[in-house]
Amino acid sequence: MPNLHDTQPSRSYYLKSRNDGLRAPPKLLFWGLILVFLLVLLGITGFIFGFREVLRPAQQQRLIDQLPFLSVLRNPTPEGGVFPTIVAPENADAALSLLDMPLDIASPTGAPQESQSVAEATVSRTTVPPTATGFPTVASAPIPTATEGNSDDIPPSPTPVPATAATAVRFPTGAPRNSLPASARIYGLLHQQQTWNNCGPATITMALSYYGWRRDQAFAAERLKPNREDKNVSPEELASFVEEESNVKAILRMGGTLDLLKLLVANEFPVVIETSAMFEAYDWIGHYRALVAYDDAYDVFYFFDSFLGVGEAAQGVSIRYADVDTHWQAFNRTFIVVYEPQREALLRELMGRYWDEEDAALIAFETAQQEARREPQNAFAWFNMGTSLVALERYQEAATAFDQANRTGQLPWRMHWYQYGAFAAYFHVGRYDDVMSLVRINQNNARELEETYYWQGRVQEAQGNPQGAAASYRRALGYNPNFDTAREALSSLN
User: Fold this and answer.
1) Which is it for the CA torsion 59, 60, 62, 63, positive or negative?
2) Which of 1, 175, 177, 382 could lock 404 by a disulfide, CB 3.0 to 4.6 Å apart?
3) Are 268 and 282 in contact (CB under 8 A)?
4) Which residues contact 199 (CB under 8 A, 6 or more apart)?
5) What's the rounded Cα separation, in Å, for the pair 387 and 265?
């Protein structure tokens, strides 16, 4: 019995109380629990690392499809969804001078003179005087923006017609139209629903199906992107594929217009365009689409889309004219026309100055220049000026345009996955550190882009590091053995 006047029980009382109550847990159990906790923590950390660094994007997506909450484990995208700004020389005067820089856009010698009159006829409703492109612009009231792939507010074509109907719009071969109908449709394309990361091969397969091509997208992918994780199949690769693997031809140009697209559809030339897209739950990405129809009554184009499908009544996914142009702008309004050799004369006449590659680049530059004047913070306008100037081999001015596009802080973070004009411009003016900055950013976001390793090799070669350059070229070829540009660079190096 303790002394009640004590302020603290005696030690003997304390020990007796412990023996009478609960005993302390064994040390083995205590350390066992800590070990289990550490193993669980290590397992979670290892799973996150394996998900991000070991699994390929396609494998990640398969897991996310089964367990959607795993989407939080994806590598974080750059803050704000924009490309990290690289430090560019401050030269605002040089950038502003591009807005007033004149370029000679006279028609090339030998271009068909009658093509201009055909082009000027490609108008819908109200027109304004022709621009430097040779195609009148369309004046229309502002229209509400439709959510991409959700066109419930856009009525379908009023009279859906089966592909075998005799009422299909057909124009005589060799005879261009002097005016366009209010709507037109190309019949005969077979839709391909893309497999993982395969919109380029799927879309070019759709365009070729118009001419009886019956290979599938897997055949195209095997040649265009042997590595299924390859994030970019360039328009140049798609056009080359048509020329090498089929009995028809393809022409690739930049700077197109909506009226030119209508003219080509009305004369039954399948067209593939490269656009941006932001599908539900996806970030900004590049995406190819096969154009199948237009309808002035509703101001819409119809596309066979490898991701979104064929739309209501299989008429095509409907997208408003204004939205098409907005998404198309991100890729300098690049388009590929697939055609039969016997119709080349007609196509050349329809395209006018676009038939000449340099002239198309001049047209694209002037279009971007006008857009940059109207919207000085439009990153795509400045970027397109740079792309067009690279095509014209005016690298110093192109680098200035790319600097300004970068300076806006508005370029989507995937922009340099698809377009490598800035790499070329900075390389040719000796700004190797800036090329390598682009290389590092791309490699941090997507390892399997063979073009990135090619430009890394070019810089290493220029800086006197042939061993490093060879390793970079070989890595590019490891990701895409069909990448002839890297193979030629490696052969030249050897």
Assistant:
1) positive
2) 382
3) no
4) 287, 288, 306, 307
5) 26
The rounded distance, in Å, linking the Cα atoms of 318 and 321 is: 9
Its pTM stands at 0.75
Count other Cβ atoms within 10 Å, centred on residue 488.
11
Residue 273 forms beta bridges with which residues? 289, 335
Instruction: Write the DSSP string, 237-255.
Output: HHHHHHHHHSSSEEEEESS
DSSP state at residue 82? B
Longest dimension (CA), the chain: 120
Q: What's the mean pLDDT in 148-167?
A: 35
**Beta pairing, strands 249-253 & 183-185:** unpaired
Per-position DSSP letters for 433-453, written without gaps between them = HHHHHHHHHHHHH-S--HHHH
**pLDDT tier for residue 87 given thresholds of 50, 70 and 90:** low
SS3 annotation, 354-412: HHCHHHHHHHHHHHHHHHHHHCCCCHHHHHHHHHHHHHCCCHHHHHHHHHHHHHCCCCE
CA angle 175, 337, 263 (to 5 degrees): 45
303: which strand partners?
291, 317
In Å, how far are 4, 403, 425 from 92, measured between CA atoms?
Answer: 88, 10, 18
With cut-offs at 50, 70 and 90, classify the pLDDT of residue 127. very low
- Interhelix angle 466-479/484-493, rounded to 10 degrees, is 150
Q: Provide the token pair at 475.
A: 């890595």
Residue 451 pLDDT greater than 70, yes or no: yes
